[in-house]
Amino acid sequence: MKALVYTGVESLDYRDVTDPVPMLNEQLIRIESVGICGSDMHAYLGHDTRRPAPLILGHEAAGAIKGGARDGERVTVNPLVTCGTCPACVSGRDNLCPERQIISMPPREGAFAEWLTMPESNLVTVPADVPLEKAALAEPIACGWHAVRIGLETLGAEHDNIRALVLGGGAIGLGAALSLAAQGVSDIKIVEPNAERRLHLQRNCNQNAISADQLNSNDMFDIVIDGVGFASTRATASKHARPGGVIMHIGLGEDAGGLDVRRMTLQEITFIGTYTYTAEDFRQTNQAIFDGRLGALDWIETKPLSEGARAFKDIRAGKVAAPKTVLIPDHAGP
Fold it and tell me: Which residues form the Alcohol dehydrogenase-like C-terminal domain (predicted)?
């Protein structure tokens, strides 16, 4: 099969690789859509030691099952593989499984390829009227859905009067904003530094997107979601979370700096790091997509998988206004 292989810092090679073979209780998936994630970009830039080259990246995938009783069934892929038996899995917090694996990280290759194998339990059926390039958004949006759910549970308040601030207008941040709205929050602002993307969010995604300098110093929010994870965004989060508020930290941009720990201590601000999502969060996100509760999801840009290296370069150069680029395999293989 053809795959887009990460071969070194800022280097991707579209080439032939060995076809995957499904193991017991796994399905072979013909990949039809796969999104480029911020974590893929971190690996591409050489910033993620968990993803050493050579490696097939990509974990935001949708496609169709090949072979067996479910042949032809259209599915989204939950890329997080867990043991199913540890205390975390049994309690419904399977994203914290100590044996967890995620595709695009050894030992599991990713989905920037024509074919992928996954456990049956990681697949969610997609209705015929939902395009697979939109269904592939389930994974990045589920990260925001999970963070919003936990944040609102932590606040423990009615959602009608909650003010929310989202840092970052990429797919993670936008997905968090859409998840906030779907879970009952109406007062939402997104801070996005890229002027072209900010305009795209305003015009095409119906979002209240602003630049950081448009935040007043005394503008406070009940919940702040950091979808970026840089020192600068953590500084913004700790400055604008209200006393007793909650910061939900999703982004993995850099690993230190930014938090005003003194203010957070004096004002009893809760900081929660949040990683991926539970299997139930993933299912709920898919259903919200299918029901239309997350909007039209028409804010993606598609490119052939064979042009994936150029897509990464364009994202790196800040040339992409769309919050999400989705790669489409051309299936030269079997």
Answer: 171-288
